[in-house]
């Protein structure tokens, strides 16, 4: 994506919390969900720390990076605080470049 002519944008979702950081209950819920989506043909293969994935995107030449956590997305689009609704640490990230690289 970063090699294409500007403007370039990519948007994707990812899970940022490592399993070790979750409570035992939430870890069990994530493991069950991971098995379920794998059986549906959509395995979760990776988890990323938000700072790490943003750094990787910037290193690829995408200089405009916005990362929004699940509860913040709900608050933004539904208009209500969403405390504790995102058990898995989900994020949506948008990265882009508006101008040609020099």
Sum up the structure in keywords.
single chain, 102 residues, alpha+beta, three-stranded antiparallel β-sheet, 3 helices, 3 strands, 34% helix, globular, SAM-dependent_MTases_sf
Outline the secondary-structure elements.
Layout: E1 8-15, H1 24-39, H2 50-59, E2 64-69, H3 70-78, E3 90-97
Antiparallel strand pairs: 1-3, 2-3
Summarize the entry for a quick read.
By secondary structure, the chain is an alpha+beta fold. Helices cover 34% and strands 22% of the residues. Strands 1-3-2 form a 3-stranded antiparallel β-sheet.
Mean pLDDT over the full residue set: 84
Which band does the percent of strand residues land in? 15-25%
Largest sheet: 3 strands, antiparallel
Question: Strand tally, please?
Answer: 3
Distance between the termini: 16 Å
Radius of gyration: 16 Å
What order do the helices and strands follow? EHHEHE
Question: What report would you give on this structure?
Answer:
By secondary structure, the protein is α+β, with helices and mostly antiparallel strands. The chain has a domain at 8-20 and 46-97. Helices cover 34% and strands 22% of the residues. The chain has 3 helices and 3 strands, in the order βααβαβ. It has helices spanning 24-39, 50-59, 70-78; strands spanning 8-15, 64-69, 90-97. It has a 3-stranded antiparallel sheet. It is globular.
């Amino acid at each position: 994506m970063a090699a294409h002519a500007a403007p370039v944008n990519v948007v994707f979702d990812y899970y940022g919390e490592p399993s070790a950081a979750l409570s035992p209950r939430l870890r069990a819920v994530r493991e069950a969900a991971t098995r379920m989506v794998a059986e549906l043909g959509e395995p979760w293969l990776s988890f990323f720390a938000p700072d790490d994935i943003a750094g990787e995107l910037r290193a690829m030449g995408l200089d405009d990076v916005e990362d929004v956590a699940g509860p913040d997305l709900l608050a933004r689009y539904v208009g209500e605080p969403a405390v504790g609704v995102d058990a898995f640490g989900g994020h949506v990230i948008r990265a882009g470049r508006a101008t040609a690289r020099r």
